[in-house]
Each structure stands twice: as C-alpha cells, then as structure tokens.
Amino acid sequence: MLDFSVSINPLGAPAQALQAYRSAWKEAARYPSPYSANLVRRIAAWHGVSADSVIVGNGSTQLIYLLARVLRPSRPAVVVPTFSEVSNALVLAGSAPSMLAMPPERGFCLSADEIATGLPTGADALFVGRPNSPTSTLLAFDDLQALAKHCERIGCRLVIDEAFIEFADDARSAAALLGPHSGLVVLRSLTKIFALPGLRIGYLLAAPALISRLGQGLEPWSVNAVAEKVALACIEAAAPFIERTRRTVQRERQWLQDQLSRLEGMRVIPPAANFLMFRLARERELGDLGRFLLRRAIALRDLNGLAGCPAGFYRVGVRLRPDNERLLAALAAYVFKTDPIRSSRPW
Predict the structure, then answer these.
(1) Which of 114, 162, 244, 333 could bond to 340 as cystine, CB 3.0-4.6 Å?
(2) CATH number, residue 32
(3) Has this prediction a pTM greater than 0.85?
(4) What are the tens digits of pLDDT across the range 106-164?
(5) Structural domain that includes position 20
C-alpha cells in the first residue's frame, strides 16, 4: 500500500534519530522528566526564546486540546478548511467556533484584511493553519504580521498552526513575532519534518504567562523517554536535514503539480507545503476516485465532509519519484479508462 493520505517527510527520519532510537531502549526502565525539561531547553535555544516560552506534548494535537481546555474561548473563530481536530477540541471544551471559509474559486486564499474583516464581533481566539492543511496554502509573512497586530489590538488570541512550516518555500516562523505580540500562540510539530508520527512529539510557543497556565493543565509524562531522546537527536541534525528535505520536496512537488495539471478535468490548488489538494471534474460519482485508487493499493485523503471544503476534493502527500509515478499512472488510468499496469503513461 502506498499511503498518500499522510504528509510525512518522504526522506524518512534522519540517521541520527534512528541511532538515538536504537540506543533508547535503556531509557524504558526509567521515568522520563515529567515535563521534558531537557527538550524544552533545547527547543528554546533552537528558536532563540526563553525556556518559559515553550511547552512540549504528545504531538501538537494534544496541545491543541490542552489549549482549548485551558483557554475555553467564548467566541473562537477557525479559518477553514483546516485540521479538523481544531474545531473538535474547541467543541469538546464547550466552545462553539465560527468558521471563516476560504473561497475555493480563489485557491482557498484569504488576506489578513479579509480574515480581520470576517472575524465575528467579540472574537477572543483565532485559529489559522500556516501552511494550512489540507489546502497547502501559506499566509504570507507580511499578512501574518498584520493579522497579529490586528488581533493584539482587539484582544483576540491568535493561534498559528505551523506543523508543516519547515516544508514551505518561505519558512519564516510566527515564533519570530512572539516578543511584540503577547497574544500569539505558535503550534509546532516534530512529527512531519522528521517523519516520526508514531512517537508523537509536538510543542507550543507562547508568552510565559500562558505557558504557565498550560503547564498546570498538562498531564505529566506526556512525552516518553524514547521520544524525548529521539527529538533531541533530530534537533541536533535539523539544519542540514531540513535543507535537504526542502530541496527534495520542492522538486517533487513541482513535478507532481505539473503532471497532475496535465490530466483532463484536474484542478490543482497551488501548493506551498509537502502535499497537494486537487479536484477532478471527471469523477464518476463522489468518492469514486478514492475507491478506484484504493483497489490499486494507493490511499489518498478524501476531503468530502470537511468543514469549509466543497465536495470532490482530495489531498495527496508528496513522496519520492517512483511512488509519485505510480500515483500518476493510476490517476491517468482513471481519467483515460486504461489499465494502470499496461498504461503507456499518457501524461
């Protein structure tokens, strides 16, 4: 099975992370630090912030739920379509989020002014993906700065989900704005860039006062000893590994976008991350393309039913060329009604 439904680094984990994993078995007999103090300090140094501006958790999803549970915003807003667990966490915490829908006809893009104008009166929290999943769109850094200023001015906490920021062409992080904007929260993940979804490692950057509040609501030992040791190794290897990843992903993403765009009836949303969102006009019935590919041992993300997303859209992660070619062969078989095994690659 080729799983294009996930958006993980196609290069896999760095060698240093695998070495750390193999040697971490000895840690299983010891309790880890309750709140991952060593990892907190290392992440703080990596981003040039103080350690009291960082909290780590069992993946960024745990921290999304923690944030919703601790803040309990009365009038949150979510820019959609986006990661569904954001709204799920808010609803579970007793909040009723308003949805700011990105227009499909404009490639699911909104400017800072449009987001600010669309905020409901009295909004006290705004959640934005950057790059956003599943659309693979990126709010420009200038727009991010303008939005942070607006939210600061009206007393609305701005939460930026940067789980995929390392894959972006412009990888400047909202973390650089933490100083002047005390209401800013930045969610980050080590899962995507270092290909570690099974170990669940994420972190959150914010003003020390909010980190202190979140720490009081976070369960101890959320990050196990093996995950912490591997995360430390990943950060040590980060600079050259991320640069190599970005070059690889940019090349394969452009190739995949070009090839998909050649298929009749295919609309590809211009991507900024390590995944692409598309819609095929010639789909025979809703969900038929996904079922067709699944029978050929290829999985992709069917976005039907996701808030803010029109029916018929799919998301695929960027993989390495042989896998991407296999996906294209199967898609071409669907469009041109040919056998993907015998196809002469009509793209």
Answers:
(1) 333
(2) 3.40.640.10
(3) yes
(4) 999 999 999 999 999 999 999 999 999 999 999 999 999 999 999 999 999 999 999 99
(5) 15-237
